[in-house]
User: Fold this.
Amino acid sequence: MTTRPGGHVARFVVAAGVLTLLVTLTACERKGSETVGSSQATVPTTPAPPPPTTQPPTTPPPTTLPPTTTPPTPPPATTAPTTRPAPTTTVVRQISLIDALDTGAVEAKGTGSGLESMRVSITSKSSDRLQIKVLPGTVFGASSRSVQSMVARDETSLSLAPGETRSVVVDVACINMHLGTPGAADTFSVHSPESEDLLTILQNPNIRRYTFRVQQFAIWTISDNPTRGGYVGLGTGFTGSGPSDDEIQQIRDIFTAAGVSPAKYRALR
Assistant:
């Protein structure tokens, strides 16, 4: 125990390794404090409120937005190609009636119908679609020896599907002027003309400018080669006449335009 100046007694107790300071107030100090305490009114001490706690302004943490992800651009829609059946190409073979008969592509027969026209029936034997041309100068030989054969004066055409049979009316004129006029019961086969001059004048378009009468006399001029007065008359009913001088001149013009010499034929000399 130690005594310090001022009357304070200090005791130091050491127990269990812990130093405890016990301060003992002197009796004088204790008494003085009790006197002061009894002479003063006891004022309840209200503890001062703690100063307001100033919180630092709360700054919200920055909002972290997820990174903007641009969705990938979808690939353009794939349009499946429209498969369309390939257009069917129809083979159309153009061929003359004579060549079609020679190659076996068709069969044909004709029936009579007077001096100016006849009906021709044609049957396709080809697997192709055919465009048949009956060319001027095509001859239709009569099956009867008493009937005139016929020759086409103009071009006629018709189309035939495979295996199809069709008929067409052909503009014709007669050859062999001293034979009978064909009728509906007469039949004909098709062949090429035997006379080159006849084919030449009929394939020249110039001949179609003239009347049927002049054309028929021009054909007989080649097929029969009559004298100037030896033509069979043409007309209606039981009347008829041979070519006039003017018609003879027209026949000369037809031959000249086609490149056939009129001097080769008796009536035109």
